[in-house]
Design brief:
The chain is built from 7 helices and 16 strands. It has helices at 4-9, 33-54, 144-161, 173-180, 200-213, 216-232, 285-288, and strands spanning 17-20, 24-27, 64-67, 70-77, 80-85, 88-95, 113-117, 130-131, 134-136, 185-188, 191-194, 245-246, 252-255, 262-269, 272-278, 293-298. The protein is elongated, with a radius of gyration of 22 Å. It is 30% helix and 26% strand. The chain is of the alpha+beta class. Helix 2 packs across helix 3 and helix 5 (200-213) runs antiparallel to helix 6. A hairpin with a 5-residue loop joins strand 12 and strand 13.
């Protein structure tokens, strides 16, 4: 039996020896070819599920897509799959083609590394997308794309939430004056925050003001915040535009007029924040799948 530390801490394809419970240490060269084929096939299947999940964010071209001013891409590393945002690894999936039950130390993995395993012993288990640091990925599971989707949605939501209401600064005087009259922007002194969707004409005028009066980096920061805000302003369930209502703690609330999905981005304490997304007033994976979620975010990272 492969130990969790073996599969989670080292690339399986690079191992020269594997510790089988019944046979002791066996070299891969003499291990059954069928076992290697199973590991490879399961890795390919995990990658296909990941690709299918990402279609929610747009079609992938050569394993890459542009979203919210970020570049999303997937990369295979040995048997593992990595979800990259702007060439930074945000999630690593470690396929484990094993019919065994999960090890007891499943919660001791780094947060961005997730074990994917068939979960044959679970039968019907759809109360949660994740079990500790493990994700059930099986062609026998009708919820497989929903499970992977819930995980990926959390990862990518963290990316755009991290930039909400983060000020662009220091502003030159003319840019600050231009921003003060635009609905959706908040200007205080030499700082500008984008708190809600702004009209296309207003966005173009601000971009022209940045280009004329500010350093290039400030204009790029404004464009980045603007596109992230546009992504947040689309309902994640039905993709319709949804107004964000700014809260006193610097977060927001939103209710979609089309599907009535409710979203809350709120401060808990210090740098600890929470994002909650409710469909039909509930966050139950068995009922809503990836369409509802609640997860914490540490904004100090």
């Amino acid at each position: 039996m492969l130990s969790l530390s073996t599969i989670a801490g080292t690339e399986i394809s690079n191992l020269s020896w594997v510790n089988f419970q019944s046979a002791g240490w066996v070299s891969f060269q003499s291990a059954p070819t069928a076992n290697q084929q199973l590991e490879l096939a399961y890795s390919v299947y995990t990658g296909l599920v990941l690709r299918q999940t990402l279609l929610h964010y747009g079609p992938l071209k050569n394993g890459s897509a542009s979203w919210a001013n970020h570049q999303i891409s997937i990369r295979q590393n040995g048997l593992n799959w990595q979800l990259m945002v702007d060439n930074n690894t945000k999630l690593e999936l470690v396929p484990w083609a094993c019919s065994c039950a999960l090890p007891d130390d499943i919660n001791k993995l780094p947060s961005q590394r997730v074990i994917c395993w068939p979960g044959i012993e679970l039968e019907d288990s759809v109360d949660a997308a994740l079990i500790g640091c493990a994700l059930r990925v099986s062609p026998m599971d009708l919820y497989v794309v929903e499970r992977m989707g819930a995980l990926v949605d959390q990862v990518l939501s963290r990316v755009v939430l991290a930039g909400y209401a983060v000020p662009v600064m220091p502003l030159p005087g003319p840019v600050a004056m231009a921003g003060k009259i635009i609905k959706g922007l908040k200007v205080q002194g030499s700082q500008l925050q984008i708190l809600n969707r702004i009209a296309d004409e207003d966005a173009a005028n601000m971009q022209a003001s940045f280009a004329k009066h500010a350093r290039q980096e400030l204009g790029q920061a404004f464009d980045s915040r603007l596109k992230e805000l546009q992504a947040l302003s689309r309902c994640p369930v039905c993709a319709e535009s949804s107004e964000l209502t700014t809260q006193n703690d610097g977060g927001f609330s939103s209710v979609c007029k089309q599907c009535e999905t409710k979203r809350y981005w709120r401060k808990v304490t210090g740098t600890d924040w929470e994002y909650q997304q409710l469909l039909n007033g509930i966050d139950i994976f068995r009922v809503n799948g990836r369409r509802s979620m609640t997860f914490p975010v540490d904004r100090s990272l």
